[in-house]
Design a protein that fits this description.
mainly beta, 164 residues, Thrombin, subunit H
Length: 164
């Protein structure tokens, strides 16, 4: 057997070669948050809510792209009908792993400010085996509470994000 046949079929530099291509499309700034594991409880006497808070995971540049494989679909959430649409969210490998149930809020989108204030819930956090970046599938709920948005934005601000 010749030494030529003992090498791997893929050059070890190949997975890193195309990293700059997807990074060039990441123009929106998003925050990634995760529920703290407690259930939100409303106090009817004073109107306060305890528990169910978001914890900070990451903020950075993302690409937000409609995912045509998963068109808008009707679903029920908390016994209320709603329409959800899935989008592909891509970022660099600097971002820690994004998990099922995490939320991603669009803080700033320079080319389409209509995306700002959207909150996406992670439907499919599986990653590719290459190292070009992280890609997750997220659902947007058009009936999303604006109260959640303020909490996500505050998390980003508390962790160094400054509005452009």
């Amino acid at each position: 057997m010749s030494p030529l046949n003992l090498r791997p079929s893929m050059d070890p530099r190949w997975p890193l070669h195309h990293r700059t291509v997807p990074i060039g499309w990441q123009t929106a700034q998003l925050v990634v948050a995760r529920k703290d594991g407690t259930e939100a409880v409303w106090n009817p006497e004073d109107g306060s809510v305890t528990g169910g808070k978001w914890t900070f995971v990451y903020w950075g540049e993302f690409r937000v792209q409609p995912n045509k494989d998963w068109r808008a679909r009707r679903r029920n959430g908390e016994d209320s009908p709603m329409v959800q649409h899935a989008v592909r969210l891509q970022t660099s490998m600097d971002c820690p792993p994004i998990l099922l149930g995490d939320a991603l809020g669009v803080l700033h989108s320079p080319y389409d400010d209509g995306l700002e204030r959207y909150i996406f819930h992670v439907r499919n956090p599986l990653e590719s085996s290459n190292t070009w970046g992280r890609s997750v599938l997220g659902d947007v709920d058009m009936s999303e509470s604006s109260l959640q948005w303020d909490a996500l934005q505050q998390l980003a601000i508390d962790n160094g994000w400054v509005a452009p």
